[in-house]
């Protein structure tokens, strides 16, 4: 499955979240990660996110697709991190 | 079509971008918008974004789907803005 994660968290937890998400997904923009995950990988991701955030204050949204062939993905302006540069 | 837009822009342009995007899509989180658009609506959106950002410094990523029935969308923590509260 293909997953997009966006988050809005307090600075300290935001840094922890970024470090955690970077181990599992590709950083593509400030507070935005994308990548392929297995079902179990996705479950681990959710548990890890829950361990880090304050669920009364921080907000994480995930979008999950069967595969990357959602319709289209485009960039306007700077591409902060080219995804296909990842093996 | 269903569109998700995430952006990373300098503060002044970020505010302008937010005000513009709010006229066309639902604000769901800091720098994240979602919503249904027609083909022409999407083209207008892109033109409007290009008019606002500095394409050498700012970054806007859009994800476009034929419809909202991509696999799944979930929230962990606070839902900053419930989408279905929109008519």
TrEMBL record, chains A, B:
Cofactor section: Mg(2+)
UniProt keyword Transmembrane helix, yes or no: no
Protein name in the entry: CRISPR-associated endoribonuclease Cas2
Classification via InterPro entries: CRISPR_associated_Cas2, Virulence_VapD/CRISPR_Cas2
Positions bound to Mg(2+): 8
GO biological process, one term: maintenance of CRISPR repeat elements
Gene: cas2
Self-association and partners: Homodimer, forms a heterotetramer with a Cas1 homodimer.
GO molecular function: hydrolase activity; metal ion binding; RNA endonuclease activity
Keyword Nuclease: yes
Keyword terms of this UniProt record: Antiviral defense, Endonuclease, Hydrolase, Magnesium, Metal-binding, Nuclease
Source taxon at top rank: Bacteria
Function: CRISPR (clustered regularly interspaced short palindromic repeat), is an adaptive immune system that provides protection against mobile genetic elements (viruses, transposable elements and conjugative plasmids). CRISPR clusters contain sequences complementary to antecedent mobile elements and target invading nucleic acids. CRISPR clusters are transcribed and processed into CRISPR RNA (crRNA). Functions as a ssRNA-specific endoribonuclease. Involved in the integration of spacer DNA into the CRISPR cassette.
Record-listed E.C. numbers: 3.1.-.-
CDD domains xrefs: Cas2_I_II_III
Record family assignment: Belongs to the CRISPR-associated endoribonuclease Cas2 protein family.
Source organism of the structure: Melioribacter roseus (strain DSM 23840 / JCM 17771 / VKM B-2668 / P3M-2)
């Amino acid at each position: 499955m293909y997953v997009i994660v966006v988050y809005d968290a307090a600075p300290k937890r935001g840094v922890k979240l970024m470090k955690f998400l970077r181990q599992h997904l590709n950083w593509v923009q400030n507070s935005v990660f994308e990548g392929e995950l297995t079902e179990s990988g996705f479950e681990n991701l959710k548990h890890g996110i829950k361990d880090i955030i304050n669920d009364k204050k921080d907000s994480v949204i995930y979008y999950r697709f069967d595969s990357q062939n959602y319709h289209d993905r485009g960039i306007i302006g700077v591409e902060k991190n080219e995804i296909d540069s990842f093996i």
